[in-house]
């Protein structure tokens, strides 16, 4: 096999969407005679993508050929953030980064360097190779907490495994419950399969969320509840299931740990109790419970959004308990799905250099970058400062919580920052060295789809600009300069990494994947529906999770330990108010939900996406607006103990009284005063395994007096 040979040139290239989205769509890309991409379409022959992709990816050429794209390495001139740059060669830039890392290590030890990355690409090679350099050099460890911790932990606390019903089975359901995700905006393929079930089977679609978003508008039954109250709704639904005979007692006796204890616990969790907490009516709760209770083939598609609260782990677990009480798992088109992370079993040991990992090296929390960079002793694990950063695939100055702390940290005179990026993001603007990065059609990579069941190849389809480089190139070149390039795992091309990873995982190699385009790793019906038992040794679903000791995908290393107020987590599913409860000083609850035309901070740089979104706004109910004298379009000020910012008001019935929603993430500079919504979000660790509670903020709102 010749791993260096190029993929055969053709007018249509086949690849996968690299962005941080559970769908990981299979793509067909038109390529013209000049080697430029044109139209991007969903692959019709992939039965999950099914020919459908989101509009922002369909117009990817706008992003690839954007006039503002970074094309040359740059060195900062003048003060940090002043925006004055000098072009330098790649060798000069990489030499300076390596020199800065060596100096940081000489003064404060290897932990002074913190390679910092996330999911700007979901490609295994381009995203995760930074870990190999980290481990080889004993740089500070990285605990990724900004996205999945609460959702994955809550799910696995019940099932014992991060997998579930084949998401394509949504099309075979008689009822699809889309809980806590605005799928129209963030996972368009969920809607493909749900609406197919409605069209072909007459299935009903239920949407549970905190505002009337585009997915809610597709619902046959829409339930708009107060943020952070999902567990109360789930408990009431289960109460009704036991009360009215919908609960499958025989199923629970065989497959669950303590159904009798759960039933006794739920005796007081009535619809009236839940209505007072959630803001839903008793009639809405009863109707929901009756629908799912009488519809055996009910598919619960559980999202991430409702878990991004301080009680999010509990909320996910509680929602997951509903199909278990009902016995929905037994039926084709029934059960639950959140993420398929456990099914792929990719051996990434060589790619990430785990053989070099030293458990004595400290591990720092991604979400607490503001605290880390401003010298918070606990965030630093009571060790020395971080004085050098290498950042790939993320934009923390925009997307991380406690934004004012983050920016203050980046402005430290003694901090060296290198950013490898596609655009001059607000993080790049605060850097000392900025390196231009390739985009996904310009390099080889491999992807695994959390929201479906495929491993997909993303081969290089077009040539990048001559002056930009891949993430892997940067890691390899730094490894040479830092004296670790001779270690196993270094010195390989992307295709060699992909081939070796696949074969080490017992899967066909690169050539087979290039021919087939993807591998379907979906387990059997019995395994996906847990009909052979759930993932715990005894095969039982846990109504009574062991929050502190049970294994979970995002469990922190032993050096970090269990996080947050674990002692306040409930024995059984329950509403637990470890959230930022509204009070007299902060009467509103704010969620920072995703916008349809952005993906985190990506696509906010493209003209079409920005024009479609308009401007940063906060949604406020008309009754709240009238009480505060706020008219549509007025500037208002939002604030809490972390800070305040000005933003325009959108007066709308889409949100309930007392609830605010600000869709984004907009660049900070798009806001009136140059500070974005993450001024208001917190970085305190969520129990039990950490995470960022982006949708859990108590705030005040006032009409701006300026």
UniProtKB/TrEMBL annotation:
Keyword entries, A-Z: Iron, Iron-sulfur, Metal-binding
Stored InterPro entries: Asp_de-COase-like_dom_sf (IPR009010), MoPterin_dinucl-bd_dom (IPR006657), Mopterin_OxRdtase (IPR006656), Mopterin_OxRdtase_4Fe-4S_dom (IPR006963), Prok_Mopterin_Oxidored (IPR050612), YoaE_C (IPR037920)
Gene Ontology molecular functions: iron-sulfur cluster binding; metal ion binding; molybdopterin cofactor binding; oxidoreductase activity
Domain 4Fe-4S Mo/W bis-MGD-type residue range list: 10-68
Any one Pfam family match given in the protein's UniProt record, by short name: Molybdop_Fe4S4
Family recorded in the similarity comment: Belongs to the prokaryotic molybdopterin-containing oxidoreductase family.
Protein name listed in UniProt: Molybdopterin oxidoreductase family protein
Source taxonomy: Bacteria, Pseudomonadati, Pseudomonadota, Alphaproteobacteria, Hyphomicrobiales
């Amino acid at each position: 096999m010749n791993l260096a040979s190029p993929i055969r040139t053709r007018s249509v290239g086949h690849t996968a969407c690299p962005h941080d989205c559970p769908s990981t769509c299979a793509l067909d890309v038109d390529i013209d005679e000049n080697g430029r991409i044109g139209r991007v379409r969903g692959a019709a022959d992939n039965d999950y993508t099914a020919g459908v992709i989101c509009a922002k990816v369909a117009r990817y050429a706008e992003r690839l050929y954007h006039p503002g794209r970074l094309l040359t390495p740059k060195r900062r001139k003048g003060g940090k953030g002043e925006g004055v740059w000098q072009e330098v060669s790649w060798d000069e830039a990489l030499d300076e980064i390596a020199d800065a890392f060596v100096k940081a290590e000489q003064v404060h030890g290897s932990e002074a360097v913190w390679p910092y990355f996330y999911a700007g690409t979901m490609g295994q090679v381009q995203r995760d190779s930074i870990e190999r350099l980290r481990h080889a050099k004993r740089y500070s460890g990285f605990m990724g907490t900004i996205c999945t911790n609460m959702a994955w932990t809550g799910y696995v606390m019940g099932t014992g495994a991060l997998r579930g019903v084949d998401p394509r089975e949504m099309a075979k359901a008689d009822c699809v419950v889309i809980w806590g995700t605005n799928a129209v905006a963030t996972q368009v393929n969920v809607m493909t399969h749900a609406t197919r079930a409605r069209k072909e089977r007459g299935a009903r679609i239920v949407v549970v969320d905190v505002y009337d978003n585009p997915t809610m508008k597709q619902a046959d039954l829409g339930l708009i509840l107060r943020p952070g109250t999902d567990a109360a709704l789930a408990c009431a639904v289960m109460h009704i299931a036991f009360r009215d005979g919908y609960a499958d007692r025989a199923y629970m006796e065989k497959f669950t740990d303590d159904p009798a204890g759960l039933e006794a616990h739920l005796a007081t969790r009535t619809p009236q109790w839940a209505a007072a907490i959630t803001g839903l009516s008793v009639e809405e709760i009863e109707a929901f419970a009756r629908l799912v209770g009488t519809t055996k083939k009910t598919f619960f598609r559980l999202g991430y959004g409702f878990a991004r609260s301080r009680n999010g782990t509990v909320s996910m677990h509680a929602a997951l308990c509903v199909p278990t009480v009902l016995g929905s798992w037994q039926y084709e088109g029934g059960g639950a799905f959140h993420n398929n992370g456990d099914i792929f079993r990719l051996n990434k040991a060589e790619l990430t250099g785990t053989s070099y990992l030293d458990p004595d090296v400290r591990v720092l929390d991604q979400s607490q970058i503001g605290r880390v960079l401003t010298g918070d002793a606990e965030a630093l694990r009571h060790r020395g400062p971080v004085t050098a950063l290498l950042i790939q695939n993320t934009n923390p100055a925009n997307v991380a919580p406690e934004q004012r702390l983050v920016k203050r940290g980046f402005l430290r005179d003694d901090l060296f920052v290198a950013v490898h990026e596609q655009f001059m993001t607000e993080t790049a603007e605060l850097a000392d060295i900025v390196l231009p990065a390739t985009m996904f059609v310009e390099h080889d990579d491999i992807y695994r789809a959390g929201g479906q069941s495929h491993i997909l190849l993303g081969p290089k389809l077009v040539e990048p600009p001559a002056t930009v480089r891949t993430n892997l190139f940067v890691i390899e070149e730094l490894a040479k300069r830092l004296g670790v390039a001779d270690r196993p795992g270094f010195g390989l091309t992307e295709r060699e990494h992909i081939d070796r990873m696949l074969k080490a995982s017992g899967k066909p190699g690169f050539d087979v994947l290039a021919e087939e385009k993807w591998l379907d790793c979906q387990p059997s019906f019995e395994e996906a529906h847990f009909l052979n038992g759930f993932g715990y040794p005894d095969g039982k679903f846990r109504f009574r999770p062991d929050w502190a000791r049970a294994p979970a995908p995002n469990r922190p290393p032993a050096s970090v330990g269990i996080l947050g107020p674990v002692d306040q987590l409930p024995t059984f599913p329950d509403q637990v108010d470890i959230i930022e409860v509204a009070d007299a000083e902060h009467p509103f609850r704010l969620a920072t939900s995703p916008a349809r035309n952005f993906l985190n901070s990506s696509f906010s740089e493209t003209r079409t996406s920005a024009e479609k979104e308009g401007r940063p706004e906060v949604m406020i109910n008309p009754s709240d607006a009238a009480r505060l004298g706020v008219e549509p379009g007025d500037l208002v000020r939002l604030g809490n103990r972390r800070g305040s910012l000005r933003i325009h008001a959108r007066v709308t019935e889409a949100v309930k009284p007392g609830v605010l929603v600000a869709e984004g993430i907009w660049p900070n500079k798009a806001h009136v005063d140059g500070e974005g919504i993450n001024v208001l979000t917190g970085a305190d660790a969520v129990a039990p395994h950490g995470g960022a509670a982006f949708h859990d903020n108590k705030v005040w709102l006032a009409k701006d007096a300026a």
